[in-house]
Amino acid sequence: MLAKLDHVTKRYVKNEGLRDLTLDFPAGQVVGVLGLNGSGKSTMLKLLAGLLFPTSGHVSVFDGQPRSKRSNIVFLGERDALWPWMKPTDAERFMGNLYADFDRTRFNELLDALEVPRRKTKTMSKGERGRLRLAMALARDAKLYLLDEPLGGIDLISREKILSSIVQEWHTDETILLSTHEVAEAEGLFERVVYLRDGKLALDVSAESLREGGKSVVDTFREVLT
To answer: pTM (2 decimals)?
Structure first.
């Protein structure tokens, strides 16, 4: 099993981010992680990335602790931490020095495909910076990609370009977990959908079984979470 959460609870000072969550993720899936604000989506992805530790339960990636397997994990969070003076060439140098698996050729191909301008990030739109951040993430040669709201707050054209690139860059031995509020636009990407509510698992279902039952991912979102 590529990644697993076994009866995981994550408590914060005033609330619980996750409550007794058990899930496993084999290789070769694109999984939608869906839920309302505060449902535990980001907490789950950060636990799998090794950025948080569970209060109870066990999280494993490649049969080990997530922090010990970071060379095979890519985490793209909501926070835009790009320096204002940074150009794509600076991002390429930074990522290449930091990660041995960073593919510079692939990065530049992604820049072209995503139409990222070759100028300082302080002059880019939010969508352009989002596309740059995605290129930086997908240019790494990993097995587990954890993408937390990569479509959040950016324009329609950028969202379409990002979704197209995720599809094109995915390989059958890789697993992508994608958290998004843009459910309608992303649902064609998902093979499996995990719905979270108040830190608990509300539903874990294949997208194909939903379609066979005459439902969409969006319909099920409304039924399960609202």
So the answer is: 0.94
